[in-house]
Design goal:
eight-stranded mixed sheet, Rossmann fold, 2 domains, 17 strands, 32% helix, single chain, binds flavin mononucleotide, alpha/beta, 397 residues
């Protein structure tokens, strides 16, 4: 996503500018070409030398440097994205009113490309009527905003907004700003992830070792592409994807209910969850002690969610299933694709090292209705998620 992208990172005069060093590093590591532009006040907080070393490029701080005439217009119109982090109250006021009295505000006035602002300031400065009016004005001018968040400020803890969003959060919002051409933009995407649990008694249960990683990566990547994403997940320790609405369920029956609620408005359903296929026929409401001897448990099949909810799908919705098998994955997946009326199915083999449950990588074969088959080589689940979304987008048209 970032390889070959040209990003301008604007830095203004706030304490949070030290965090912007991490953001620049993250963007450069991801393959972006980064030009850092600092206001004169910003250079009082972090020396330009730091950003020059991190970006590998000269830092722009003044309109009046020889050899850089019109560089502000070029950057505002030729970059793929402009991020300003932190954006001070003063800077927000200047650009909201079209001032262009330093290099960065001149870039913003000349800008024709997407821009993301990460405001950061004292909580009273943020709550001030003038700051709020400026932010509303900037949103109306097409700026994307991230934060500020509640939490500790330089002057101490606060439960009111003011603190700049973390570099990682800004990075995810920036990725979404780059998604302008995606056919997922504005679509409702529902992703299921993780295992389900079926209890034998209050403390014992049957489940599987699904970590949720694959579904969480798909949800995050779909949000980057501009979709509104609902992630319905069983128990998972993965951190919630940025920007995604997360609904937590425990049992297969709860997953079924959540999917039924979400389906009527879903343009895309990706069923990456690994629901328990069996549940005990009964459970007790007390922990059964070992002294009671042999425990006999009978299991019954749980509901087939994909088949059972088929009639609830929107007519043009894209439905994606997963088939985790232990051998014969492609044949079984192809049969499942047809049986359940899917558009795509993602087959992977639980026995292949580096693929399937728990690990951070996967090797999958995407099988499409109509017969196309794409072998996605072993890669991180984030990369595999992009490959799956590429196929979904191709079918959405
Ligand atoms: C120690 C210190 C910390 C500051 N932190 C912030 C801040 O976090 N947010 C903010 O809006 N202004 C902050 N200011 C005030 C700005 O630096 C000041 O308004 C300046 O004019 C901003 O210029 P710029 O927007 O061109 O970078 C701080 C000032 C000082 C002295």
């Amino acid at each position: 996503m970032w390889a070959g992208r040209h990003v301008v990172v604007g830095v203004t005069g706030g304490i949070a500018s030290y965090k912007t060093c991490h953001l620049v590093r993250r963007l450069v590591e991801a393959g972006a070409l980064v030009d850092v532009v600092m206001t004169p006040a910003a250079t009082e907080f972090v020396r330009p030398l730091v950003f020059e070393a991190l970006s590998g490029r000269p830092v722009l701080t003044s309109l009046w440097e020889p050899g850089r005439a019109l560089a502000h217009v070029r950057l505002g119109q030729q970059a793929d994205l402009i991020i300003v982090a932190p954006a001070t109250a003063d800077f927000l006021a200047r650009i909201a009113h079209g001032l262009a009295d330093d290099f960065l505000s001149a870039v913003m006035l000349a800008r024709t490309v997407p821009a993301l602002l990460a405001p950061a300031m004292n909580d009273d400065m943020f709550a001030a009527a003038s700051t709020q009016a400026n932010l509303a004005r900037l949103a109306g001018q097409g700026y994307a905003l991230v934060g500020p968040e509640r939490g500790s400020l330089a002057e101490g803890p606060s439960d009111r907004p003011g603190r700049m969003s973390e570099p990682e959060t800004i990075w995810h919002h920036a990725a979404r700003c780059l998604s302008r051409g995606s056919s997922l933009r504005g679509r409702q995407v529902v992703v299921t992830a993780g295992p389900t649990r079926e209890h034998l008694d209050p403390v014992r249960l049957i489940t599987n070792s699904s970590s949720g990683k694959m579904g969480f990566r798909i949800a995050q990547a779909a949000w980057h592409r501009g979709a509104d994403v609902l992630l319905i997940t069983g128990p998972s320790t993965e951190p919630p994807p940025i920007g995604v609405t997360v609904e937590r369920i425990v049992t297969t029956a709860e997953l079924d209910q959540a999917v039924r609620r979400a389906l009527p408005s879903a343009d895309v359903l990706v069923m990456a969850a690994a629901p328990a296929d069996y549940r005990p026929t009964g459970s007790t409401d007390r922990k059964r002690p070992r002294t009671e001897g042999t425990l006999m448990v009978a299991f019954e099949p749980t509901d087939d969610i994909l088949a059972g909810t088929r009639a609830l799908r929107k007519p043009a919705a894209i439905t994606v299933g997963f088939a985790l098998e232990t051998g014969g994955a492609v044949e079984r997946a192809t049969a499942k694709l047809e049986r359940k009326g899917l558009d795509l199915i993602v087959a992977n083999d639980a026995l292949e090292p580096g693929a399937g449950f728990e690990v951070d990588t996967n090797h999958v074969i995407i099988i499409e209705a109509g017969g196309a088959r794409i072998d996605v080589p072993m890669a991180s689940k984030a990369v595999v998620a992009e490959a799956i979304l590429d196929r979904i987008e191709a079918r959405l048209g």
